[in-house]
């Protein structure tokens, strides 16, 4: 190893001939002897959105403390008193010089949106409007409430809000402030794709129209691409050291990240490239049907919400992607398949054993991860279970931790493992991407696909991250309608038809990046956007 990493080399299978140049210099901050060290800082720019792309535990919060003036970075000299003069000296002549001068003069104020919005009701008692009222520093709050669709919940106690509602309230509360620097730590968890795009547009307007500096951490790459002007890649060894690169254009930054190789830095951050397919997968020879189901309908109470389902077939060992807004009836359908809910019309002559991973994970018990997982499967600890479930989800290091001290991403990986470890006919995963970083999304995708193939298991994955759905799904089931009022579930379709159906509803088209073939959201009204809409190809260009 190069002598920096605590455990094994994070760049597996990669020869490290020389230390990356960043690591040959002193860090920006080191917490203590042998403690975490941060190399490099992001550059907030007024009038623009700066993104950071990289794993958790890599020093983003540390960097933001420094940029907000809440901590003077010690430049690695943790036993001496740190001063802004020294920091300024280090950054003289760089893009950060002006910014650091302003921090030193205490001229930078900050607003931040926390990563885990689920915690907000624990810290704030009261109804939504109480939380929002104090934040209206620019007279923009009403507009945010309207455009983010928060109006229906303004009088509701915060502890009754769903994750998606809390996320939108937290975004409005942060953006409504009048500050110089806004830090948004993940904007997409629990939001459906329409809400993600709206949030991205509002953030861009905040930066451009109000000349504010906005820094975002985001793992949904289609949204990050739409949102950011410049991008810093963060890499390193979580918990040991983190490197924040110089800014790149958002397009190059994401491409290099997917390739696993940073060209300016001459640094490989992953052995393999993450690949997308420009063409729809060819119609595969289908395996045996798992179930055939007829048209169904179901309504709750006096018809406050009703769902119509078009009949169809689900095949064994396929991964069926499920897309559509929140509150449209996706879990209602899963409950009908499980036999725990009777349809009003249509009859189901089967009852599937369903293993279900809910969207909001509540496994906060004072119990160790290994004890929890071994209570679910007898295979726990076998080499087979480790290869198929634990290793791809990187559970090794957290087995001995307690469920209630896990971070959001760790909890998500345990919940996916728990679901896949059950013995079931159908595995339903609701938003497995939430709080996973990009690397973990790719690993979870591989774990889920592999599991379906090796176990003849049928998996339904509900997710709003288009890249994750693209990498995961064999076919798509599209839900549309009016959330909380009426839902319609289409019959499962091939990817091309499904994407066209879904995206035409949202009025969003994607083009392909020439180099990596990854999908990128088109600007509304651009030539490509209009051309693709005319030809009805919203996702696959040929
Ligand atoms: P991120 O925001 O990217 O998840 P953080 O900046 O919060 O990362 O933390 C990076 C690393 O620094 C973590 O391993 C964390 O344990 C460590 N760390 C954070 N604060 C302190 C501190 N005050 N003393 C020692 N280590 C710390
Ligand atoms: P999704 O899984 O797509 O988010 P759900 O199937 O959970 O949607 O819910 C669809 C709608 O039905 C929502 O408006 C929800 O509030 C409502 N709903 C869900 N379960 C019940 C129930 N048991 N009684 C009344 N309304 C319900």
From TrEMBL:
- Record keywords: ATP-binding, Nucleotide-binding
Q: What SMART domains does UniProt report for this protein, alphabetically?
A: AAA
> Where does the record place the region Disordered?
513-542
Which residue range or ranges hold the ABC transporter domain?
A: 23-263, 291-506
Q: Does the keyword Nucleotide-binding apply?
A: yes
Record protein name field: Ribosome biogenesis/translation initiation ATPase RLI
**Lineage of the species this protein comes from:** Archaea, Methanobacteriati, Methanobacteriota, Stenosarchaea group, Halobacteria
């Amino acid at each position: 190893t190069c002598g920096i990493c605590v455990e094994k080399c994070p760049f597996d299978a990669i020869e490290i001939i020389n230390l990356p140049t960043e690591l040959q210099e002193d860090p920006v901050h080191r917490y203590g002897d042998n403690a975490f060290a941060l190399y490099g800082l992001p550059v907030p720019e007024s009038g623009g959105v700066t993104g950071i792309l990289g794993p958790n535990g890599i020093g983003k919060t540390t960097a933001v403390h420094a940029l907000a003036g809440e901590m003077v970075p010690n430049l690695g000299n943790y036993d001496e008193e740190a001063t802004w003069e020294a920091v300024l000296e280090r950054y003289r002549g760089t893009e950060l010089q002006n910014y650091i001068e302003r921090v030193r003069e205490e001229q930078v104020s900050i607003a931040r949106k926390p990563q885990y919005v689920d915690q907000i009701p624990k810290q704030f008692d009261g109804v939504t409007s109480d939380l929002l009222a104090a934040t209206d520093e620019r007279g923009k709050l009403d507009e945010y409430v309207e455009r983010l669709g928060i109006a229906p919940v303004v009088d509701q106690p915060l502890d009754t809000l769903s994750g998606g509602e809390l996320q939108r309230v937290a975004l409005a509360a942060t953006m409504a402030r009048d500050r110089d620097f806004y830090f948004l730590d993940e904007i997409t968890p629990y939001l459906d794709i329409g809400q993600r795009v709206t949030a991205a547009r509002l953030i861009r307007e905040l930066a451009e129209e109000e000349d504010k500096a906005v820094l975002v951490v985001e793992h949904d790459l289609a949204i990050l691409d739409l949102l950011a002007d410049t991008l810093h890649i963060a890499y390193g060894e979580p918990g040991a050291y983190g490197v924040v690169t110089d800014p790149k254009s958002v397009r190059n930054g994401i491409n290099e990240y997917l390739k696993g190789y940073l060209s300016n830095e001459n640094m490989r951050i992953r052995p393999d490239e993450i690949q997308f397919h420009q063409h729809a997968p060819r119609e595969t020879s289908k395996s045996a049907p798992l179930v055939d189901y007829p048209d169904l309908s179901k309504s709750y109470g006096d018809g406050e919400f009703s769902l119509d389902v078009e009949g169809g077939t689900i095949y064994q060992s396929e991964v069926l992607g499920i897309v559509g807004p929140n509150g449209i009836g996706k879990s209602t359908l899963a409950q009908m398949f499980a036999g725990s809910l009777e349809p009003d019309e249509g009859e189901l002559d089967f009852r599937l054993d369903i293993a279900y991973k809910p969207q909001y994970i509540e496994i906060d018990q004072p119990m160790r991860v290994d004890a929890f997982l071994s209570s679910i499967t007898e295979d726990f600890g076998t080499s087979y279970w480790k290869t198929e479930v634990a290793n791809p989800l990187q559970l090794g290091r957290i087995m001995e931790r307690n469920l209630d001290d896990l971070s959001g991403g760790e909890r998500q990986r345990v919940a996916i493992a728990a679901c896949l470890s059950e013995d079931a006919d159908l595995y339903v995963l609701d938003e497995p991407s939430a709080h996973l970083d990009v690397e973990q999304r790719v690993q979870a995708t591989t774990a889920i696909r592999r599991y379906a193939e090796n176990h003849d298991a049928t998996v339904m994955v509900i997710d709003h991250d288009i890249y994750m759905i693209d990498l995961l799904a064999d076919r798509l089931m599209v839900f549309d309608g009016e959330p909380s009022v009426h839902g319609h579930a289409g019959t499962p379709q091939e990817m091309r038809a499904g994407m066209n159906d879904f995206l035409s509803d949202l009025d969003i088209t994607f083009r392909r990046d020439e180099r990596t073939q990854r999908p990128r959201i088109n600007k509304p009204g651009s030539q490509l956007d209009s051309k693709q809409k005319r030809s009805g190809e919203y996702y696959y260009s040929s």
